[in-house]
C-alpha cells in the first residue's frame, strides 16, 4: 500500500483526542512554516459538509487583521485588529481572557509565539515596538521578563532610537531558550538598520544581534558606501522567519534598503538587504546567504516567510528551504550549504539614467520553476472586459514603459511593475506537502506602475515635511492611489482631526507611525495634506527638533529624487486594466520544478455571473494543507469566501461565505476528537463592503 493510499484510509477514522498533532502551536503550523496539519478527519469526501461551528465578533473595524492564531490544549490565542491579545475556548469560541496593553495600535500583526519547558509556559506578543511575555493562563505580563513583562525593541539603534518607527508584524521564532525577532519599519529616512535580535525567554536580556547592514570588519561591509552602517536603514525582517530545530539554523528573509527607489546614497549591492539569511540560531553567526535582488530599486524585498521541505534528487532526500518572491520567482536551496537546487543565472539588465544612481548590472534568475506570475506586460495582455475599457487601457499603456523585470524607474514616464508591488507572493507564504514535496502558493497577478521625479525641496518646512514623509505613498498631488493609498486632499472634511492625529502617531495598515513628530508638526501637516496650504500661525512647527523631519536632515540623507507614488493599473471602473487571471493558486512539484496545476483564485461579485466570472482577485493570506489532501484558503479581497481545493488537481471541492474577507492564513486543530478550521476575517481592505472583524471556525456537524 502506498503512503498516499494509507493516508486516505486513515482519513476515514476519527482523529485522536489528544496529541501534539491536534494543536496549531506555531505561526503557520510548525517551526519550519509548512502550513501543514497531520489531521485527517476533514477529507475530500466530507469537506462539503463543513459548517460554521462558532464565530467570535471582535467589535473592531478599520484596521488590518491578518492573524494566524495559535491553538494549544484547547485554547485559541490571537490578536484583535487594535492589537489586544485574546484567549478563546477553541471548541466554543467563548472568551477566556483579554490583554489590553493600553497602547493604541492599528498596524498589521500576524500571530504570536509560544514557549514551554516543563511546567513553564510563555506567550510572546509583539505590540507595536514592544515584545511582551504573557502568562497563557491569565494573559497577564510576566514581570520577570524585561521591564515589567516587556522589552522595548527601539533600544539599541543609537541616539534618538526612541523616536524611530519599529513595529512587530510577524511573530518571532522560538528556539530553545531564545525568542528571535525582526520588525517592520518605515521605507523612507530616517529608518533603523534592520538588525535581527535574539532575547532570553526568561529574562528578556539581549543574547545576540545580527547586523543586516554590516559594521566595519563584518562580511558584506564593502557592498555599501563607507560608513553607510551609521546612516542607512531598512534591510529588516518583516515577513517572518523559520527555524530548522534539528540543525539549529534560522532562515530569515529581509526587506529592501531605505529609500526604496532611489539608491544614490547606497551605491553597491547593499548586503544583506533583499536576502535570505541562514544564521546559527544559537549565536546569530552567518552561515550562508542568498541575495535575491542586488541594489534594489523596485521594492522587491522577500515578502514571505520561507518554508522547509525535503525533496528528492537522484533518488536521495535533500533537506531544502524554499523562498517565494514578489516577482513570482521560487528559489530552492540546500538548507545546510545554501546551494541552489535548481539552475540559477545572473542576467544583465539596463543601467539607470538617473544622476548618481548605479543600478546593478545583473540580477539572479531561477531557470526552474517557471515564475508563478506573469513577467512582462504587452498590449495583447490588456483588459478586454469591455471594448471601452480595452481602448482606455491601450491609450494609457502607450504612455508607459513596459520592459519586464529590473528596469530602473524613469523620470519622464511611469514604468510598469508586473507583477505589482504587492505580488506575486505576499506575506501569507506557501504550504507544502511533506510527503510529496509539492508547494502551494497563491499569487497576485496585476500590474502597478511607478516613477521618479526630481523634487525641489520646499523652503516651507511643512511642505518639506510632506515631501519626506507622505509623498512616496500619496503623491505630489495628495490624491494617492485608492484604496491601498487613500487620497488626502480634503480628508479633514470626512475624518475627525483627532483620528488623523492618532493615525500619524501610531500608524495604520501599511502606514508607519511618525513618532518623531510633535503636536505642532502633526497639526500643521494635517492642515497641509487636506488643503495644500500652509496653516496660518504654523511657526511652532518650523523647527528641526525631530530627527529627519525637516529640510536640513532631509538633505543630509538624500532626497533629490522621490518616488511618485504606488499606482495600481486599474481601469476607470476600478478593475485591473490587465487581462485575467488577477489572482492564482499554484501547485509546484519541488522535486522536478514542474507545475502540477494552476487555477484562478477569487472573483469580483459584480462580475461573477458573466463571462468575466473566473477572473481571480487580489489575495492576502496563505493556504493550509491537511494530510487528507484538502487545501484550504480564503485570502481574496472582494468575494469574502473560504475555499477548499483538492491538493492533487486543484479542483474546487467547496466554498463558504464569510462575514468579511479572510485576509489571513487559516489554522486547523482538534479538540475532543473534533477537527476545526478557523480564519480571521476583516473588512479593512474593502472599504465598499461590510466593516467589522471576527474569528470564524468551521467543523463537521
Give structural notes.
- This protein has 701 residues and is mainly beta.
- The chain contains eight helices and 41 strands.
- The longest helix is centred in the last third of the chain and has 13 residues, at 519-531.
- It is globular.
- The relative contact order is 0.14.
- Residues 1-20 and 544-558 have low confidence and may be disordered.
Oligomer state of the chains in this structure:
single chain
Residue-averaged pLDDT, rounded? 90
Task: Give me the CATH fold name of the largest domain.
Answer: Methanol Dehydrogenase, Chain A
Globally, the shape reads globular
Low-pLDDT regions: 1-20, 544-558
| CATH top-level class of the largest domain | Mainly Beta
List the helices and strands and how they pair.
Layout: H1 3-10, E1 36-37, E2 51-57, E3 70-72, E4 75-79, E5 85-89, E6 95-99, E7 113-117, E8 120-127, E9 130-134, E10 150-152, E11 173-175, E12 178-181, E13 196-200, E14 206-210, H2 228-231, E15 233-234, E16 242-244, E17 249-253, E18 257-258, E19 275-280, E20 286-291, E21 307-313, E22 316-324, E23 330-334, E24 344-348, E25 362-366, H3 387-397, E26 415-417, E27 431-433, E28 438-444, E29 448-450, E30 452-454, H4 461-469, H5 471-474, H6 497-506, H7 519-531, H8 551-557, E31 561-563, E32 567-568, E33 583-589, E34 594-600, E35 624-626, E36 630-633, E37 641-646, E38 652-657, E39 667-671, E40 674-682, E41 693-699
